[in-house]
Write a structure and sequence with these properties.
Layout (H helix, E strand, L loop, with lengths): L12 H8 L16 H14 L4 E6 L1 H12 L4 E7 L22 E5 L8 H11 L3 E3 L16 H13 L7
Parallel strand pairs: 1-2, 2-3, 3-4
Helix pairs in contact: 2-3
Amino acid sequence: IVPGLHNSGPDHWQSRWHRQHPHWQRVTGQRWQEPDLAAWSEQVASWLRANTEPVHIVAHSFGTLASLLAAQRYPQRVASLFLVATADPALLGIDETQLTMPAPVPGVVIGSRNDPWMSLSRLQHWQHIWGLPLHDAGLAGHLNTDSGHGDWPEGLDWLSELWQRLPSVQVA
């Protein structure tokens, strides 16, 4: 689990999923208030290097950008990417050229039509560059606690669908 800014609080779907699946790992040690893409992607990369088997990354918002960069560096350590409510790099002043490579592993991008952090047209632009399918969650906001996504069972269903498409994956 790779949270976004402010570490996806205790009522966020990522935190709830982590409590439901305590064997899932969660990236820690970020400066959660500072969107520093280099530092965040290095933290994710460090986490990837520490695992002996490829991992499935479940990332939210700014964490999706850090996860993509880390997966570019260590594709052999990543089994899949589940990228939810990606933050628009332009809104955060990030050099977009860092993110213009196809995703090196299978995955899916989940986004909504009214996310204040990424317009649907911009999300379609990015998912096309990354070569990942887009799951349109409708008018769902930023897919976080504020938009009413606490347990978010639909998200778990979509994650399960992704995993079922991959060879030899145990669905947790």
